[in-house]
Write the structure tokens for this entry.
Amino acid sequence: MPRPIARLLESALFTRLAIVLLTFCFWGAGLAKLADFQAAVAETAFFGIQPAAPITVLVIATQLVGSFLLITGIKPWLGAGALGVFTALTIPLVHHFWNLEGEAAIVHFHTATEHVTVIGGLIVAAILAHRLETARSAAASVEPAAPSRYQQV
């Protein structure tokens, strides 16, 4: 692998950018729903999901908090898991192509398959976050601990 590509792939900034891009469909939608909450509630109700307002609040919270956890690296497994479960649930609740006909069935089928791909990306993000944490823990156990501020004189 060319060294510039390796450095890019090893870059923390590039990793963070990748996670921001991976989660864009979630935090972008969450912010849009916050900006026009009534339209978001109407969309939830359109798909027959009731009670629409509380469910919309849960959707927004899942999208924003899950994205935040993954982007910041604070419990990224939890953020990826929440977003993955949320995305999986949208298939039978919203994109149930097997119950549709014609063009609507085709559009929802393609959306459902894209959702499966996003779930795969979230699983990869959780795996990589776990491996990174494992590597950090292993490195920390090998390196001598720095003296605490109370031990420094």
Confidence is low (pLDDT under 50) at residues 148-153.
